[in-house]
Amino acid sequence: SCLSTCPTITPPDCREHALSAAANRPFPGAAPRHSSDGQEGQEQPKAWDPALLEFLVCPLSKKPLRYEASTNELINKELGIAYPIIDGIPNMIPQAARMIDRKAQDEEPKQT
Amino acid sequence: MAASIGAVACRALHSRRYGKLLSIGRGLFSGARCLVAEGETHFGFQNVSETEKGEKVYHVFESVAKKYDIMNDSMSLGVHRLWKDILLHQMNPYPGTQLLDVAGGTGDIAFRFINYVRSQWEHQIKQKLKSHQNLSWQEISKSYQEEELKLPGGSQVVVCDINKEMLKVGKQKAQHLGYSEGLSWVVGNAEELPFNDNKFDVYTIAFGIRNVTHIDQALQEAYRVLKPGGRFLCLEFSQVNNPLISRLYDLYSFQVIPVLGEIIAGDWKSYQYLVESIRRFPAQEEFKAMVEDAGFLKVEYRNLTSGIVAIHSGFKL
């Protein structure tokens, strides 16, 4: 599931971009993180620097992102994609991003 | 330029080792990098599809990441350190400077930036102390505590690299060396940077831009993320103009570096690519024109070590 990187519901221009990006996909998709508990949860505050959010935008739409602590991802709600933060390093490569299933979006926090 | 590429290719063709370059030679002589069929680019001396280049470059750096620093030292006999120091001197960042270092995986530029900003800050404090002899020592110790907590003046450096293996090495190095505040790591593509417009005072890319598939796009992105008044600085291998040095340099590049790569990193091919990619990168004037095309003004370059590398500088005004 984590390999499905291609957003389906996106504005036309970004969608085209995202689709072609996903089609090329030189890099393996990154696994989504489920890390709200345990050691990882303790490590993350120092590993991931939320001050970065001031600079970071979605590389496709150039719009601001929201940090989702429960999945440790950066979310672009408009395009429905989530960029993983792995070992405290946000991976902002569209090919590594995860497509958020809109229907499951509300349920997601409960899973973790 | 086409002529100079031809010359390089000729020289390369004379080398027995690179007989297979004949096929690539066709691409070179038929009009150089800018004119190869659409969707095609080069990977070292091979013509490959654009997607393939991205993948191949990724694998090169994935495989060399762990030995990258040792290799840089041994291949350049340590001179790459001086080149990077010179880059920092040219940047001359003040406390508060926001730096984006693209393709800066192992942190060489970022760590130098932090050291530089700290020393600037210390210098400023000394000046202040000279003019305010009556500062209480609580005030003095407070200023030092602040310095330990974060970078002076709120300086920040964001290291962005497409290769997470390189970043991993950089981050470990940072932990080992005790750099943490004001330093962030992001996996991102120079051609579509994940940063907001007008955010950085300085954009650096050191020995990175020649590995980017669409250099023009990377330059446009650099322009976009820089604040008005911000500065673009690029340290990259360039063209040696002295014929004698050029001869020796070629000999060293093609005969010695891949061997070193094999001995130290167990990876001949990656280092052969590095050498070839250096030869395919535009010479000083051509790259200067590309930087200007992206919108930068006051574009200048200076050669270091007879043009083995050059620093290009431009401003977003």
Automatic annotation (TrEMBL), chain A:
<dbReference type="InterPro" id="IPR005651">
    <property type="entry name" value="Trm112-like"/>
</dbReference>
<dbReference type="GO" id="GO:0050821">
    <property type="term" value="P:protein stabilization"/>
</dbReference>
<protein>
    <recommendedName>
        <fullName>Protein preY, mitochondrial</fullName>
    </recommendedName>
</protein>
<comment type="similarity">
    <text>Belongs to the PREY family.</text>
</comment>
<keyword id="KW-0496">Mitochondrion</keyword>
<feature type="region of interest" description="Disordered">
    <location>
        <begin position="17"/>
        <end position="45"/>
    </location>
</feature>
<dbReference type="GO" id="GO:0005739">
    <property type="term" value="C:mitochondrion"/>
</dbReference>
<dbReference type="Pfam" id="PF03966">
    <property type="entry name" value="Trm112p"/>
</dbReference>
<dbReference type="GO" id="GO:0005789">
    <property type="term" value="C:endoplasmic reticulum membrane"/>
</dbReference>
<keyword id="KW-0809">Transit peptide</keyword>
UniProtKB/TrEMBL annotation, chain B:
<feature type="binding site">
    <location>
        <begin position="189"/>
        <end position="190"/>
    </location>
    <ligand>
        <name>S-adenosyl-L-methionine</name>
    </ligand>
</feature>
<keyword id="KW-0831">Ubiquinone biosynthesis</keyword>
<dbReference type="InterPro" id="IPR004033">
    <property type="entry name" value="UbiE/COQ5_MeTrFase"/>
</dbReference>
<comment type="similarity">
    <text>Belongs to the class I-like SAM-binding methyltransferase superfamily. MenG/UbiE family.</text>
</comment>
<dbReference type="InterPro" id="IPR023576">
    <property type="entry name" value="UbiE/COQ5_MeTrFase_CS"/>
</dbReference>
<keyword id="KW-0489">Methyltransferase</keyword>
<comment type="subunit">
    <text>Component of a multi-subunit COQ enzyme complex, composed of at least COQ3, COQ4, COQ5, COQ6, COQ7 and COQ9. Interacts with PYURF; the interaction is direct, stabilizes COQ5 protein and associates PYURF with COQ enzyme complex.</text>
</comment>
<feature type="binding site">
    <location>
        <position position="106"/>
    </location>
    <ligand>
        <name>S-adenosyl-L-methionine</name>
    </ligand>
</feature>
<dbReference type="GO" id="GO:0031314">
    <property type="term" value="C:extrinsic component of mitochondrial inner membrane"/>
</dbReference>
<dbReference type="InterPro" id="IPR029063">
    <property type="entry name" value="SAM-dependent_MTases_sf"/>
</dbReference>
<dbReference type="GO" id="GO:0110142">
    <property type="term" value="C:ubiquinone biosynthesis complex"/>
</dbReference>
<dbReference type="Pfam" id="PF01209">
    <property type="entry name" value="Ubie_methyltran"/>
</dbReference>
<keyword id="KW-0472">Membrane</keyword>
<keyword id="KW-0496">Mitochondrion</keyword>
<keyword id="KW-0949">S-adenosyl-L-methionine</keyword>
<comment type="pathway">
    <text>Cofactor biosynthesis; ubiquinone biosynthesis.</text>
</comment>
<protein>
    <recommendedName>
        <fullName>2-methoxy-6-polyprenyl-1,4-benzoquinol methylase, mitochondrial</fullName>
        <ecNumber>2.1.1.201</ecNumber>
    </recommendedName>
</protein>
<comment type="function">
    <text>Methyltransferase required for the conversion of 2-polyprenyl-6-methoxy-1,4-benzoquinol (DDMQH2) to 2-polyprenyl-3-methyl-6-methoxy-1,4-benzoquinol (DMQH2).</text>
</comment>
<dbReference type="GO" id="GO:0032259">
    <property type="term" value="P:methylation"/>
</dbReference>
<dbReference type="GO" id="GO:0005759">
    <property type="term" value="C:mitochondrial matrix"/>
</dbReference>
<keyword id="KW-0999">Mitochondrion inner membrane</keyword>
<feature type="binding site">
    <location>
        <position position="161"/>
    </location>
    <ligand>
        <name>S-adenosyl-L-methionine</name>
    </ligand>
</feature>
